[in-house]
Recover the amino acids of this structure.
């Protein structure tokens, strides 16, 4: 909980107003000309993804060009995203190879957002390059050798990329021999003691992921997963477009269970690429090092140079449209070679099983749950749960009840995982449901909440101070509230003493201060009992959210009921964001960053 001191709650910092009031498509969050930490002058936005934006910047000290990757505003308080960002920096610092984009350092900007400084690679992505023409056989082999060298460097340090794709390979000046791998944002460590924020959750782009990244063939992700994705990249490079890997999830899964059609790949390359695309990782080359041999000699390599040779012409002849596939296995130890057939799994009807699972999900109140299915073998299907429930007991019961379904229809329940199910007690769980039902969460139009404690942990005697920044896309009305696990709501903005809450685009509201620094009438919020997990929400609306001022302190139940009604009539362009924080007694051992990340699941 937070206490309340004095009456005048807020003061303002006016941000520079951008020209125009309407939203702009792909508007950069950093304006060209901005200088970060007196060193890097931003020149232009060159790309972006779900986690961050990438800018070209000029180093004012050295005169070099750099790439700046900065975490998006909407993720600045998301401990999961922040940890992914830190992890990418750690990986790039560990791995030094000419085929991997060079790392310069990890810094914070003036608003405490993390940003990576990297080598600026001026050139097209492989995805863009092959839209002009496919690569020749020799070019594909040279590209394979170059990228394999970078992956070997990563794998030797126990890092698996998990997102090898044509988008993540850049060609400096269009030169294949200088190709570089980028974006280690979702990479995985081989060391089981090193956890990642994604863990065993799905990571990667559906068009490029390996079968095991979808939970097939045991779901173990290692170097062979990158080999499969690299095989898809090489096939795409050879024909000038990606292979058809399915659009629906069912088609995506099915494509990973069978041998892919490489009939349009040049005949000289089919055997070399098809061995990389074996559905079962045990049937693929076990190390990327096998692709570092002289590519000119690949076609006449003796058996000791290559463990696997897949004969596509014979494969097509033998399968005869049966749906199975064959591969040619040469065993180094015995010297024996033989054909091995892997038949496709028979179709099974999962409708009754999925209905039974959905019936279980409906019994949990104050929750939002989704489920993914992976066929392990035969009629056994594993279940992966995600979302949130309102208690740890519910999370455990959810997992147990689905596991106890046993055999339904034609399906036997396999492993049931609930690692991606978070626990949000009431009123936080209901608050999330209200916001998700009527507002756009975490989009570029949403406000940004910046806590004074970046790890999200406040101890007794601390003061809650936060900056809330309005989106640069439009003016609007800002509402900020604090909710605790005891069911109380403290309205931080507006308040009875400061009812005007219309904020200009890009404007920042500073909420709270320290008691010893408070000016007469200025509001401060000391941390006091009860302690636990708390939530701060911020909403931006095109018109006032509530018709009447709300009491500065009120129960969560009536507030959420009124919030639901207000959002239902608020119209379009309603944006919201939220963050969690933990309050602790003064004698509790403080947690580090990893503890904060766990708290904010």
């Amino acid at each position: 909980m937070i206490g309340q001191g004095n009456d005048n709650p807020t003061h303002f910092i006016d941000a520079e107003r951008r020209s125009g009031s309407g939203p702009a498509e792909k508007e950069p969050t950093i304006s060209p000309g901005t200088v970060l930490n007196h060193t890097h002058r931003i020149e232009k936005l060159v790309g972006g993804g779900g986690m961050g934006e990438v800018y070209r910047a000029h180093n004012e000290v050295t005169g070099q060009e750099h790439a700046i990757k900065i975490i998006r505003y909407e993720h600045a308080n998301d401990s999961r995203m922040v940890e992914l960002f830190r992890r990418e920096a750690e990986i790039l610092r560990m791995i030094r190879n000419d085929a991997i984009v060079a790392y310069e350092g990890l810094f914070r900007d003036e608003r405490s957002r993390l940003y990576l400084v990297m080598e600026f690679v001026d050139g097209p992505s492989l995805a863009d390059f092959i839209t002009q023409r496919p690569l020749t056989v020799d070019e594909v082999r040279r590209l394979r050798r170059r990228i394999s060298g970078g992956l070997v460097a990563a794998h030797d340090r126990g890092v698996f990329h998990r997102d090898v794709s044509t988008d993540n390979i850049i060609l400096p000046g269009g030169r294949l021999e200088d190709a570089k791998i980028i974006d280690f944002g979702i990479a995985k460590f081989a060391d089981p003691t090193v956890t990642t924020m994604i863990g065993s959750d799905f990571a990667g782009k559906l068009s490029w992921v390996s079968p095991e990244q979808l939970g097939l063939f045991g779901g173990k992700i290692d170097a062979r997963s990158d080999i499969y994705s690299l095989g898809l990249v090489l096939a795409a490079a050879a024909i000038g477009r990606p292979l058809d890997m399915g659009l629906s999830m069912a088609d995506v899964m099915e494509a990973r269970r069978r041998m892919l059609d490489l009939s349009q790949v040049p005949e000289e390359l089919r055997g070399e690429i098809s061995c990389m695309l074996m559905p079962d990782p045990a049937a693929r080359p076990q190390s990327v090092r096998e692709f570092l041999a002289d590519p000119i000699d690949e076609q006449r390599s003796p058996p000791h140079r290559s463990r696997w040779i897949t004969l596509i012409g014979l494969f097509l002849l033998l399968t005869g449209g049966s749906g199975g596939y064959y591969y040619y296995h040469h065993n180094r130890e015995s010297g024996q070679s033989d054909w091995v057939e892997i038949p496709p799994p028979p179709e099974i009807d999962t409708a009754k099983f999925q209905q039974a699972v959905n019936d279980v999900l409906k019994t949990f109140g104050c929750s939002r749950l989704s489920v993914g299915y992976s066929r392990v073998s035969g009629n056994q299907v594993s279940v992966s749960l995600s979302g949130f429930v309102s208690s740890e007991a519910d999370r455990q019961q959810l997992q147990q009840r689905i596991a106890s379904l046993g055999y339904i229809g034609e399906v036997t329940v396999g492993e049931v995982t609930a690692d991606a199910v978070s626990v949000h007690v009431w009123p936080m769980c209901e608050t999330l449901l209200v916001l998700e039902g009527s507002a756009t969460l975490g989009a570029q139009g949403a406000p940004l909440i910046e806590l004074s404690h970046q790890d999200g942990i406040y101890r007794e005697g601390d003061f809650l101070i936060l900056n809330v920044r309005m989106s640069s896309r439009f003016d609007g009305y800002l509402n900020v509230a604090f909710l605790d696990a005891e069911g109380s709501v403290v309205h931080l903005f507006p308040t009875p003493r400061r009812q005007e809450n219309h904020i200009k685009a890009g404007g920042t509201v500073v909420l709270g201060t320290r008691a010893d620094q408070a000016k007469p009438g200025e509001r401060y919020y000391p941390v006091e009992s009860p302690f636990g997990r708390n939530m701060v929400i911020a909403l931006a609306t095109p018109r006032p959210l509530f018709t009447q001022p709300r009491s500065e302190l009120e129960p969560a139940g009536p507030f959420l009921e009124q919030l639901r009604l207000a959002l239902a009539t608020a119209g379009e362009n309603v944006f919201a964001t939220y963050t969690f924080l933990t309050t602790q007694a003064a004698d509790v051992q403080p947690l580090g960053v990893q503890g904060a990340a766990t708290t904010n699941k």
In short: Residues 137-156 form the longest helix (20 residues). The chain has a mean pLDDT of 79. The longest strand covers residues 411-423.
